[in-house]
Amino acid sequence: MRSIILASASPRRAELLRQMGVEFEVRPADIDETPGPDEQPGDYVLRLASEKALAVSRLAPEAIVLGSDTSVVIDQRILGKPATADEAATMLELLSARSHQVMTAVATAVEGFAEACLVTTHVHFRALRPDEIAAYVRSGDPMDKAGSYGIQGRGGIFVESLQGSYSAVVGLPLRETADLLARAGYPVWTTWQPGQESLNE
Ligand SMILES: Cc1cn([C@H]2C[C@H](O)[C@@H](COP(=O)(O)OP(=O)(O)OP(=O)(O)O)O2)c(=O)[nH]c1=O
Asked: Coiled coil where (predicted)?
């Protein structure tokens, strides 16, 4: 079978891929993440996931390369990772007591050809107190995360409800990633070994 490369610097994505029992190598992709003028949020994350996968596929055409991108979307506005603590606080104020979408795209690239899929999850935040926002921003957690929160960490206490894929919110939708890998000729379950280490062990 082909080898797997994760084109991502995100430790969450590596952890989720490890959870699936996949053996892989990490090679982050460095691409321009500027949205195009009038680019729709779904199109934007799909394009970025494919570009990340294709950038690394160029250097390793034989491998199956996985790329992914996550954005938080509210009122059709794309919220990426905050550049400053002030920006993180502003994003969290915007998300307070409202619903937003988390859009995650995942792509596989093999021999320079990419296939991608989009997963949209609806998340509702309870009202956030100003002192909570300040403390959360001070913790540093929001800084490397789309929308300035991480559901898998302290940010989980803000989430009232979620409809869709939890793993997609964290950064890599497990079900869709397994489907794409199978389509690329890597059905993950066929690689599982008794006693093989996985996250829950
Ligand atoms: C909403 C949300 C996002 N995130 C993270 C997932 C992604 O790592 C990050 C979104 O930024 P991305 O630009 O999608 O990814 P990245 O820059 O971290 O990594 P790479 O481009 O190399 O793959 O936000 C969480 O960890 N938890 C959450 O609840």
From this structure: none
Q: Where are the beta strands (DSSP E) in 87-158?
A: 99-110, 113-125
pTM of the prediction?
A: 0.96
User: Running along the chain, 201 residues long, what does each successive block of 10 average in pLDDT?
Assistant: 96 97 96 94 98 97 98 96 98 98 98 97 98 98 96 98 98 98 97 75 48
* Dist. CA 45 → ligand 1 center (Å): 11
Of 100, 76, 114, residue with least CA distance to 169: 100
Phi, psi dihedrals of residue 52, rounded to the nearest 5°:
-65, -45
- CA atoms of 123 and 168, how far apart (whole Å): 12
ipTM score: 0.96
Tell whether ligand 1 has an atom less than 6 A from the beta carbon of residue 146: yes
Q: Is the CB of 104 under 6 A from ligand 1?
A: no
Residue 104 DSSP class? E
| 96/127 Cα distance (integer angstroms) | 5
Strands 64-74 and 4-6: parallel
CA quadruple 28, 139, 154, 103: dihedral positive or negative? Answer: negative
100 lines ligand 1 (CB under 6 A): no
Distance 42 CA to ligand 1 centre (A): 15
